[in-house]
Design brief:
The chain has 326 residues and is mainly α. The chain contains twelve helices and two strands; from the N terminus they run αααααββααααααα. It has helices spanning 29-51, 57-63, 67-98, 103-118, 121-129, 153-156, 159-184, 188-196, 201-231, 243-254, 257-286, 298-307; strands at 137-141, 147-152. The longest helix is centred in the first third of the chain and has 32 residues, at 67-98.
Length: 326
């Protein structure tokens, strides 16, 4: 029976069978040239560092694990942990105050952030260390009333306390802005829904807003921890025996400045590398459910860039004669 759709007198020809096309991956010779150039420069740098006798790697090895250096490293880690704890707690309080509908609380928080972000942290360290020049005595008691206890400022404001105050109060101002940005990232409908359920503002902030804001707060907080580890080197100006100050004391005695600076630098690199790996794991944990694929670490990305230069063509995928995938 004739097909009614085909006009009378027209010839019907069978379409030729589509033949699969061979897909050739795109070549990237420029990448190979760039890799070769980077490897040559890296080899030259490593050769220069290892063969230059002025680096005195034997001295670096001798002082790398001495008691003074390890004690300074412990002080640096202790400062980093305590200062970041102060900064995080203070930052949360300041961020909540900043977002408060009370103009007094919001204004006080804004003034605090303005002052501590606007002055250098080194200046703040020196001011706290020399607080006795402004207040020789520190008294505790009722405001504008009797004093219960009076202590000497020099006895209270030790180099360690001055370091905690200078670094911790400064870090609190920066953490306040980080926490405020994380709170703003939470959809306003979450707050409205909690209010509709009868939850108070404090309970909403603690149970609803802050847990969701952690996804935005965690990455910059990790950066602040790594930055604070290196910022603690500023306490050497107030004679606190951290890692850098310990290296400087040894170099002043042995007159081997470059090797001792290399010792401190290598320890900083080791600790920052460990913190970076921990930060990457924490970020992947808090980013679950928000990405199609978990973010890869810097070492995985480096290995992928060195071994993968083009996309692998799909296997056993027939292509039509016009080039489209059937």
């Amino acid at each position: 029976m004739a097909d009614p759709q085909v006009p009378a007198g027209s010839a019907v020809t069978a379409s030729p069978k589509a033949t699969p096309l061979t897909v050739v991956p795109v070549r990237h010779p420029g990448r190979w040239v760039a890799i070769l150039g980077v490897l040559v420069l890296a080899a030259m740098l490593v050769s220069t560092i290892l063969t230059n006798p002025n680096f005195e790697w034997g001295v670096v090895g001798n002082f790398f694990t001495t008691k003074a250096i390890l004690s300074g490293l412990g002080m640096t880690l202790l400062l980093t942990v305590v200062v970041m704890a102060i900064g995080i707690v203070l930052g949360i309080v300041l961020a909540v105050m900043r977002l408060s509908p009370n103009p007094i609380l919001s204004g006080a928080s804004g003034l605090y952030i303005w002052f501590f972000r606007g002055t250098p942290v080194l200046v703040q360290l020196l001011l706290w260390y020399n607080l006795a020049a402004l207040f020789p005595r520190i008294s505790f008691g009722i405001p504008f009333g009797p004093e219960f206890m009076v202590v000497d400022a020099n006895a209270v404001i030790t180099p360690f306390v001055a370091a905690l105050l200078g670094l911790g109060l400064n870090e609190g101002a920066y953490m306040a802005e980080i926490v405020r940005a994380g709170i703003h990232s939470v959809d306003e409908g979450q707050v409205e829904a909690s209010q509709a359920l009868g939850m108070r503002r404090r309970l909403t902030m603690r149970r609803i807003v802050l847990p969701q804001a952690m996804r935005v707060i965690i990455p910059p907080t990790g950066n602040e921890v790594i930055s604070m580890l290196k910022t603690t080197s500023l306490v050497s100006v107030i004679s606190l025996a951290d890692l850098l100050y310990s290296a400087q004391i040894i170099s002043a005695r042995t007159f081997q400045i470059i090797p001792l600076l290399l010792v401190a630098s290598i320890w900083y690199l080791i600790v920052t590398t460990i913190l970076t790996m921990i930060q990457s794991r924490i970020e992947r944990r808090y980013s679950r459910g928000t990405r199609r694929a978990e973010p890869i670490s810097i070492w995985q990305r480096l290995w992928r860039n060195l071994t993968q230069f083009h996309g692998k063509p799909p296997s056993d995928t027939p292509l039509s004669s016009t080039g489209g995938i059937r």
